[in-house]
């Protein structure tokens, strides 16, 4: 393990970059899915509420690895069928990074939806009722009162979801993506030094987790400025 010629240090760092790219993409996609699901859960339409409840229930109940398989092989099957229409033969593989990030995003979105929903429910109903009594439009009520305060309550939970997404990114190696975990496996098999490579991977994961935790704590501290906490 090092950066000299023939060493594996640079390969491990590149794989770490791939892990971060997939995790960040999946987390961002999950934020979109989570916001839409949380909004639907507060809808006056029963169909939207049922859809949001079904989404969070199903995705939190299915193993993450199974979701990745369904996205990858399902997308590949669709691409193969489309290719057959234009004369292509054989199996057409779906983009691994794209399908992996979407799979992680769909799963994390189910968890983020519950975080956002809980943050909105934690708001003071008196402030919302006062704004409505004042005649404040819904979009202004959301932008000035609901969004700033819900974000404040959601940061700790979102930080926990990010840690979950970071660990889930290792599962994408099963469909061929060379991220940190897969690179450690390749290095261990080539050098017959599994302990060295898996220990290095563990240290890199812990480093990412530690830096992420510091950033989320800073964000939470800034968001809670001016708020009196119970001792």
UniProtKB/TrEMBL annotation:
Gene3D superfamilies: MetI-like (1.10.3720.10). Keywords: Cell inner membrane, Cell membrane, Membrane, Transmembrane, Transmembrane helix, Transport. Its main location: membrane. It comes from the Bacteria. The chain crosses the membrane at residues 17-45, 66-86, 92-111, 198-219. PROSITE patterns: ABC_TM1. Pfam families: BPD_transp_1. Residues 16-216 form the ABC transmembrane type-1 domain. One of its GO terms (molecular function) is transmembrane transporter activity. The keyword Transmembrane helix applies. InterPro entries: AA_ABC_transptr_permease_3TM (IPR010065), ABC_transp_permease_HisMQ (IPR051613), MetI-like (IPR000515), MetI-like_sf (IPR035906). It is a multi-pass membrane protein. The keyword Cytoplasm does not apply. It is found in: Cell inner membrane; Cell membrane. GO terms for cellular component: ATP-binding cassette (ABC) transporter complex. Belongs to the binding-protein-dependent transport system permease family. HisMQ subfamily. This is ABC transporter permease subunit. It comes from Ensifer oleiphilus.
